[in-house]
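job 3f2a | input accepted
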Amino acid sequence: MLDRREFLKRCYKIGGVAAIAGMGLGAVRDAMAWGVLPAVVTGVGGGTSWATWDETTESGWGDDANTFIVLFENISAGGNEVGQGLGLSEANRTISQAGAIAGATGSPPTRFTDGTDDIFSWTSAGAAAVCSTAPWTLILKVKDFVHPGLQQTALSFADTSNSDYIAYYPNADGTINAIVQDGGAIKLNATTVDAIPTSGDVYIAYWHDGVTVKFGFTTTRPTKLSDFGANDVISATTTLTIGNFDDFADICGTTRDANGKVSGSWYYFLASKSELIDNAS
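job 3f2a | predicted structure (281 res):
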């Protein structure tokens, strides 16, 4: 059974603004609150680029062909999320939850992973659609990032043999270790000097321009390399041919063992086949 947000989304896709308006003011208000109608009102979406995106319009800035965005906005506890973009099927646009994650609250909305058994996961096909060829960019925005003091994976894409693997995890001191393995070869395995902030908003990013692969975090929206503090970004010069994540593609709040999971209030996950962070500036 569809929850109200997904029902309104489908109504809009079938009948446009008129379909929502025909259900009354309450439906219009809900559709606007959940980002269904703003994409219509603005025409192109919530901006004209990653730098100007309003961060609340799931259709993004009119780059659906290259960019997938999912807002963590479902108000139903235990509900999945369905994003937009990349021409993916609905199944591959679905971010599945485990652990009965609380429904979205706040404005803009966030969903809280509690650090016990909460996981948001993407499909392997979705992850492979982005990361198989350069360039690509992965960005998460979170509020009040907290980890259990152990090396617990906070994002992890992997194939069954772990020969292709993208992950990051916080160490006990809050520094972040980022790992990329390609065809069984370690291409990046390094740790930030600084610890990730545990209060306020944080952007967490992985990106590959075809020459270097980088990971970093920052408290302001990153559009260029200089937006990251020197102690908050790590990189390796390498080419990648990753194309297979047939095991799992965990997004946030994740781990594959029972020792605790990352907690935080998650705004959105973005995966793009565009180079959203300029390495030259």
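job 3f2a | The chain has a mean pLDDT of 84.
job 3f2a | closed
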